[in-house]
Write a structure and sequence with these properties.
Elements (H helix, E strand, L loop, with lengths): L4 E9 L4 H15 L2 E5 L3 E3 L9 E10 L3 H14 L6 E2 L2 E2 L5 E7 L4 E2 L4 E2 L8 H7 L15 H7 L7 E2 L17 E6 L5 H11 L3 E3 L8 H7 L1 H25 L8 E3 L4 H10 L2 H16 L6 E6 L2 H11 L9 H16 L6 E5 L9 H18 L1
Parallel strand pairs: 11-13, 11-14, 12-13, 14-15
Antiparallel strand pairs: 1-4, 1-7, 2-4, 3-4, 3-10, 5-6, 8-9
Helix pairs in contact: 3-4, 6-7, 7-8, 7-9, 8-9, 8-11
């Protein structure tokens, strides 16, 4: 699973249409760099350290998989695309269309020739601390051991800071909060757990992740399917039934909705592929009882992935017991899912072809998937 960082950025502008420059910068970050989770109010502040026009300043929180130096490079590209020239001339600060600084990289302390984290001037700049105080920061300054409020109270900067009525608006403002339960499904290696994790963090959702690693029959099944198929499928069914009912039954006031990387019908899909006819009949009898008592998802999202990509993803994650999974088995699972999806009310089903998408490394692919889910949720509502 890829590292996932919570980062705080400060943005400022004092040339041209300042609000538009900030708005364009935030949307570029949101769509290409990392998911924007919070945006402060817009503050008007005097130029700091040089004589120039007043600034508009904001702070934002984002989630990103990029490491500090990668993030810095991408942010500099965004600045340049929005008309930013050199930061200073002969060592003197100049006016700028947009300026983007990394303030915090969670609690990371980092320093090299071009980047220092946390930003070394946080505690001295009221134009940063005022918007920063609008955000939910779960940590203290990792060096000074002070909260934003404490830093603001002790700041010696006497600049007059004014909150404006200006608003920064996300053009692709995804909202999943009007739904109770989303199930993300897909074949082995489709990326359902990765996507579930990303969405749960970006949208304050309660994740329910399949506990496959705790199943003692799984490695044995890939060695001897005939012997271990039935106990494997029965143990998965019991665990999925228990986990879903517990997770959905315990309402969490701190999470907007529940998202799971499986739905209980997955059990029957796999059982029909792995079990013989007599075993399926017995299995179906037990499954039907459990299925009736399990909450149905408001939205069922199926990630379609090509068999070639599935095999590649399986190899990348390096689980030894999965190395011998044949392509024919994955094809059978794909076909079974296809037949199951046809039985569902299409009002609550979204099939997304992720064959040409990399929503782990390419944030714009992730946002495209998010947009499709957001659009479907609006239809469900």
């Amino acid at each position: 699973m890829q590292n996932y960082h919570k980062v705080v950025l400060a943005l400022g502008s004092n040339l041209g249409d300042k609000r538009k420059y900030l708005n364009d910068a935030v949307n570029s970050i949101h769509n290409t760099v990392g998911f924007v989770t919070e945006i402060s109010s817009v503050y008007e502040t005097p130029a700091w350290g040089f004589e120039s026009f007043p600034f508009y300043n904001i702070c934002i929180s984002i989630h990103t998989h990029l490491e500090p130096q990668q993030l810095l490079a991408v942010l500099k590209d965004i600045e340049q695309n929005l008309g930013r020239t050199s930061k200073s001339e002969s060592g003197i600060y100049t006016a700028r269309t947009v300026d983007i600084d990394i303030i915090y990289f969670a609690e990371t302390i980092f320093k090299n020739d071009i980047l220092t984290i946390p930003h070394p001037q946080i505690q001295n700049r009221k134009f940063v601390l005022a918007p920063l105080n609008d955000l939910t920061i779960e940590w203290k300054h990792p060096i000074l051991n002070k909260t934003t409020k404490e830093l603001l109270l002790s700041c010696e900067d006497t600049s007059v800071i004014n909150k404006t009525a200006e608003k920064i608006v996300l053009n692709n403002n995804l909202d999943f909060s009007h739904i109770n339960f989303i199930a993300i499904e897909g074949n082995i290696g489709a990326g359902k757990t990765t996507l579930t994790n990303k969405i749960s963090k970006d949208f304050t959702a309660k994740p329910i992740l399949e506990r496959f690693a705790d199943n003692p029959f799984l490695p044995k099944f890939y060695e001897d399917q005939g012997r271990y198929a039935f106990p494997l499928e029965m143990s998965f069914l019991a665990d999925r039934y228990s986990q879903l009912n517990e997770g959905l039954g315990q309402y969490d006031l701190f999470n907007d909705f529940v998202i799971a990387d499986y739905y209980i019908y997955k059990s029957l899909i796999f059982a029909q592929v792995t079990l013989d006819t007599d075993e399926v009949v017995l299995y179906r009898t037990i499954f039907d009882v459990m299925y009736k008592e399990t909450t149905k998802p408001d939205l069922y999202v199926y990630l379609y992935q090509s068999t070639e990509n599935l095999l590649s993803n399986i190899q990348k994650r390096g689980r030894s017991y999965e190395e011998k999974i044949p392509a024919t088995y994955l094809n059978d699972i794909n076909n079974s899912y296809s037949e199951f999806i046809k039985t569902l009310s299409q009002d609550h089903v979204l099939v997304i072809d992720v064959t040409e998408k990399d929503f782990v490394e390419n944030h714009s692919d992730y946002m495209d998937i998010g947009s499709k889910i957001d659009k479907k949720i609006k239809q469900v509502r």
